[in-house]
Amino acid sequence: GYRVSLQGNFSGRNHVYITFPEYNTREHIKLDPPLNIQSNVTASKCQIWWSVPWYLAEILQYELQYKEYNVSWEIALNKTPPSSVPQIEIEATELRSGIAYVARVRCKVSENEVLYHSQWSEWSQTTVFQRAGVPKLSEKTLNNRTMQFLFIPLSFGTLLYLLWNCKLSQKASPALTFPRQLLSFSHSIICTMGILR
């Protein structure tokens, strides 16, 4: 431990002020900020990670700030990783599509640590990331899906119509009418299946 005092000359007299009678450096650490902060964005989340000295990794805690690129840090959002692992994830639902974001991180000794105590480090360098826009379905894809949804009810309705029409026309020529209508219906189904492919 150390004894910290301030000495000065006030009104022509020399004074000594004891600031810390017993100063333990292990309880007043200020760490360097984390290094090499990087990010990677997928469809569901943004992963951010950074580096710290290996011998400190297990006793540190972190605080991450992120914000839209063009706004002030004063309105940034804060996140705390659940463990001492130097990484964190942001869900894609927390990010606006097509907007650039910037993030930074700082560290200090964990509150659970008995032997060492520290204040927050300065903020690290920043990393920039952006959630990809949701791709729009093409007009052709939409048309194909619409045809697929309409195919079954239309086919069923056509079949009912043919059966009903056959019953009415069986009195006139049952041997000729039904095969022709069935052949026409089969042809329409084959054509529709070809369009959907």
TrEMBL record:
GO biological process, one term: immunoglobulin mediated immune response
Key words of the record: Glycoprotein, Membrane, Receptor, Signal, Transmembrane, Transmembrane helix
PANTHER family, per database record: CYTOKINE RECEPTOR, INTERLEUKIN-9 RECEPTOR
Subcellular location: Membrane
Membrane topology type: Single-pass type I membrane protein
InterPro entries: FN3_dom (IPR003961), FN3_sf (IPR036116), Hempt_rcpt_S_F1_CS (IPR003531), Ig-like_fold (IPR013783)
Tagged with keyword Magnesium: no
GO molecular function terms noted in the UniProt entry: cytokine receptor activity
Cellular component annotations (GO), alphabetically ordered: external side of plasma membrane
SUPFAM superfamilies named in the record: Fibronectin type III
Name by which UniProt lists this protein: IL9R protein
Start and end residues of each Fibronectin type-III domain: 33-132
Range of residues in the leader sequence: none
Gene: Il9r
The keyword Transmembrane appears for this protein: yes
Chief location category: membrane
